Amino acid sequence: MEIRVNLGLLLLPRLSQGIMGTMNLEERSLSLQQVLEEKIAFADQREATALLGEHDEYLQVLMDNFDCRFISRGEELAIDGEAAVVRAAAQVVRELQYLHRQGTTLTMHEVRYSVGLVKRGKGEALHSLFSDTILVTSRGRHVRPKTLGQRIYLDAIRKNSITFGIGPAGTGKTYLAVVMAVAALRARLVEKIVLTRPAVEAGERLGFLPGDLQEKVDPYLRPLYDALHDILGFDTYQKLLAKGVIEIAPLAYMRGRTLEDAFVILDEAQNTTPSQMKMFLTRLGFGSRMVVTGDLSQVDLPRGVFSGLSEASRILSDVRGVGVVRLEALDVIRHDVVARIVEAYDRADKARRDSEKKSAELQERKTAALEKAAASERGEADA
């Protein structure tokens, strides 16, 4: 990498002509000293394509977000412009290069998230974020946190016996919980993995569904299966399942058990009742770890039934050994449109709540006015 101060006139048009016209000679010289050109060398054309995009789509994101000039010359990228902007843009490219060289396939998420962090002044967190490898999947893929929220979530799982991961769809809360469970199993920190989930989405009781116990709960635990297949590979997953190292059970079957030396994951916990949640949490035994995941914006419980996840995360937030992490729309990893959909629904929900609050306040004022008028009429009648 080469950093060079550029005092030539080539970059002068990038500065405001009005501002330059009002500067004296010393001020102009100082301004010119703040103009940089930075060159970043790529290992080969393949690395250049990985960092800039197959059709320069990643480069276009950089150009849209940083007011400086990018010149791609085969296996080299030159960035020139105001010093502070050039350093920020170069930092993004260097961190993406580091991530690529660690074996991660770059996507639009890594590019845009890196740009966002640097522009918010949190660029120093990129390197530590991208260097935290949890494990390598059966297909050789390195699993790392992709957002600061995810890193906080993983740190909470490492530090606490019980961790609540609450957030919208696509934030990786379920997948990362499974990753941590497999990592703990590989490190022999636990002897088994227990997966459970309330079966209420379809409004059916398990007894009325066809098949044996596993076939009954399969549709509800599909996201957990998908994560295990991706991390372990199908054959390894089947072997561990047959040996009982991986156990799948509906939440109702947890009653009366004490789970020791196990990594237990309760998914879709927003659909538990307070009594179910208390029952589940008190199954924790020695040497065990629990992760409870859910999205409080997707409660499928009958009207009037309070979510056990909402209550537990509020009651237990200050209890030692319990961590509560709330992931946000910024932590959504899926498609960009998913993050925008989540934000749109959140705005709609807030508008609905505000409207309901205003309607309730208006109704209260009307009721108070009617009561006051009635009292006044009674007073006049008595007189």
UniProtKB/TrEMBL annotation:
Where in or outside the cell? Cytoplasm
Alphabetized InterPro entries for the sequence = P-loop_NTPase, PhoH, PhoH2-like
Pfam families, A to Z: PhoH
Where in the numbering of this chain does the PhoH-like protein domain appear? 143-346
Primary site of residence:
cytoplasm
Q: Name one GO cellular component term.
A: cytosol
Per the record, which residues fall in region Disordered? 349-383
Q: Which Gene3D superfamilies does this UniProt record tie to the protein?
A: P-loop containing nucleotide triphosphate hydrolases
Work out whether the entry's keyword set contains ATP-binding. Answer: yes
Keywords noted in UniProt: ATP-binding, Cytoplasm, Nucleotide-binding
Q: Which terms in the Gene Ontology molecular function aspect does this entry carry?
A: ATP binding
Recorded family membership: Belongs to the PhoH family.
Protein name as catalogued: PhoH-like protein
The organism of origin for this protein: Selenomonas sputigena (strain ATCC 35185 / DSM 20758 / CCUG 44933 / VPI D19B-28)
What is the organism lineage in this UniProt record? Bacteria, Bacillati, Bacillota, Negativicutes, Selenomonadales
